[in-house]
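Long-time lurker, first post. I've been practising inverse folding by hand and with some scripts of my own, and I keep getting stuck on stretches where the structure tokens seem ambiguous. Below is the full token string for one chain I'm working on. Before anyone asks, I'm not after the true native sequence, just a reasonable design that respects the backbone. If someone could post their per-position residues I'd love to compare against what I wrote down in my notebook.
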């Protein structure tokens, strides 16, 4: 089967605070460099200044990895912003930020980007759902409305679902809409027991492999392990003109 193979990842970086309670964006940058993703969705990105340098976590990660950054903050304060992010090595041709917050709960959002990968548009959504089951139900219904409007041949949904038990509404309904996502455990990073992080690909057959990166570095850099997937982007079909139509065009020329 021909086509372009590329790598995507989803990673809750826990504000760059590791399990040793040290805030160290350098470790997160090293993890991303070792993953070498084409696209990576991040959750829990803290945009406060990094130490005494006039930079922010996302700017720093973009600078070190060489990837283009998109901020998707959901919490806005005078001194800081906090939320999702997208890093990619490909051109972003369309971008939208969606508010999927539920009243009286922590604000939540979704980054919705169309990325040009080898001349083909690929839609990527990055999100982080809420802690309440009722909250997640409403957020998943919103996401399902978003992915129903495809617009591209390939759609990816990357995120921390905060869903501890697979049969619940969130995972079950997204699986029904997008195809069953692989569910390796990613949390907690030292002894992963729960599949909180997921990658969905539509059409489902484009997913080749899903892996969790377990190294001494990933086990300490964040409380989540990074989830990575290999995707095949098939070449667009070439529609050939019928022979009789070609002969008619030739006769007219």
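-- Answer (accepted) --
I ran through it position by position. Result:
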């Amino acid at each position: 089967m021909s086509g372009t193979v590329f790598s995507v990842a989803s990673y809750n970086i826990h504000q760059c605070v590791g399990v040793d309670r040290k805030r160290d964006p350098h470790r997160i940058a090293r993890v991303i460099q070792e993953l070498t993703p084409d696209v990576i969705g991040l959750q829990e990105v803290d945009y406060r200044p990094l130490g005494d340098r006039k930079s922010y976590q996302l700017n720093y990660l973009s600078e070190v990895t060489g990837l283009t950054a998109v901020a998707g903050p959901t919490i806005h304060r005078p001194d800081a912003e906090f939320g999702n992010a997208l890093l990619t090595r490909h051109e972003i041709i369309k971008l939208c930020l969606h508010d999927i917050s539920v009243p009286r709960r922590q604000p939540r959002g979704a980054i919705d980007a169309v990325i040009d990968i080898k001349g083909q548009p690929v839609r990527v959504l990055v999100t982080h759902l809420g802690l309440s089951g009722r909250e997640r139900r409403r957020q998943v219904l919103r996401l399902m409305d978003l992915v129903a409007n495809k617009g591209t041949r390939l759609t990816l949904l990357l995120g921390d679902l905060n869903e501890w038990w697979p049969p619940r509404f969130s995972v079950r309904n997204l699986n029904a809409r997008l195809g069953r996502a692989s569910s390796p455990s990613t949390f907690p990073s030292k002894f992963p027991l729960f599949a909180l992080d997921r990658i969905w690909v539509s059409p489902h057959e484009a997913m080749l492999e899903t892996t969790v990166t377990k190294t001494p570095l990933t086990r300490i850099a964040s409380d989540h392990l990074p989830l990575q997937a290999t995707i095949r982007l098939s070449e667009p079909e070439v529609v050939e003109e019928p022979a009789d139509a070609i002969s008619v065009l030739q006769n007219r020329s």
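A couple of notes from the structure itself: Residues 133-148 form the longest helix (16 residues). The first strand starts at residue 4 and ends at 12. Happy to go over any region you disagree with.
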